[in-house]
Design brief:
It is built from two helices and five strands; from the N terminus they run H-E-E-E-E-E-H. It is an alpha+beta fold and 87 residues long. The chain has one domain. Strand 1 and strand 2 form a beta hairpin.
Length: 87
């Protein structure tokens, strides 16, 4: 696993998702500032944890697909179910 490459790609995707950009959230009686929702990703020597999901070993095909999506510069396709309008 090339952790440096994965971290660099995650940083690029974070910028695309609006990291550091404050948005406006409308609410009754006014509006407020809102930061984009964080999506935790923890990389270990033998696997990873994303969001509130259980530990996933790197040998798992779904984990390999997730990492390949990131390396290819895409948000993981498995997130489409949870974020149908994008992340």
């Amino acid at each position: 696993i090339d952790f440096d490459l994965i971290l660099a790609k995650v940083k690029e995707l974070n910028l695309l998702a609006g990291e550091g950009i404050t948005g406006i959230q409308l609410r009754p009686g006014g509006a407020g500032l809102r930061q984009p929702e964080a999506l935790p990703l923890i990389l270990y020597q033998n696997g990873m944890v994303m969001r509130d999901q259980p530990f996933r070993p790197y040998q798992d095909p779904a984990t390999q697909q997730c990492l390949q999506d990131i390396i290819d510069g895409y948000f993981p396709s498995e997130l489409q179910l949870h974020y149908p309008d994008g992340i």
